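Pasting as-is:
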Amino acid sequence: MQFELHRNPNPASAERIAEIHAAPGFGKYFTDHMVRATWRTGEGWTVPEIVPYGPIMLDPAAAVLHYAQEIFEGMKAYRHGDGSIWTFRPGANAERFNRSATRLALPHLPVEDFVHSLEALVQIDQHWVPEPGPQGENSLYLRPFMFGSESFLGVRAAHEVTYMVIASPVGPYFASGLKPVSIWQSTNFTRAALGGTGAAKCGGNYAAGLAAQNEAADRGCDQVVFLDAEEHKYIEELGGMNLYFVFADGTLVTPATSGTILEGITRSSIIELSKTMGLTPVERPISIDEWKDGVASGAIREVFACGTAAVITPVGRLVWEDGEVGSMETGEMTSQLRSRLVDIQYGRSADANAWLHRLV
């Protein structure tokens, strides 16, 4: 991709960016520019542009508004100690983006073009990438997304599609620091079924989980865990994160992906990292009863969730209608895995797997 550049005539001042970096929150502020490209049936991709960040002009009949033909990705840009800027495994995000596109009947974007779009945006807005900050985890969150932008009312794949990338300086996902979260076991809702869109990163999956998330909040819980749609027995994932269980025998168990669970980039990275830390990673079905009984008996020592935004988050309690298990402690392996992964991302330790990709 060769980008046409249209600079923002009113970019944020250095003082304003410094003010945002001092308290970025998560997903509240956005950089001066964004990437935009259009695909049309029979024509392919148009010349992509970098344009000023701002509202999207969208026809009320646009396909995405009526038929939810949309996918997205999430990753971060990290400023290293020497001032260079890197991202983490963008090729894996690009490949998952195309798997999601296949499931949602959207066009593929070549992996190299996906990665180049991140490079182009971060290059022009590199001054928006914060220093790691007091907690060592400030970054620039990157959000590539694609949606059906054709104006029509009819159930078919859109003949016009728009691809965009926006960026937002962010702090740690949990501003109060690394604290164990409480999880509500949903019995009224499921996240995905075989043959559905569970393995795709599309907005509909997240929207479908919001009612369950509200249910969790009403019970004083931070997140909700979904069980399989067929037997309502096996753990799948949280509303937006994968789950891991550290067993007393040294195994690290995570639910096996089977078409209903998102194949997380952080999830797969933990599998590789755990092998160097004396753990034996195992991907297999794990039931909700095994979770409850394992914590109660001591067979399960630690539980944590993972994803790009929060990295690794300890799980303190599992709560259901008439009971709960767990404590509010952060486990040793959870802390070690998190530190190892974050240190690689910020260039504070060696990148033995060549996961980092330099953007600037």
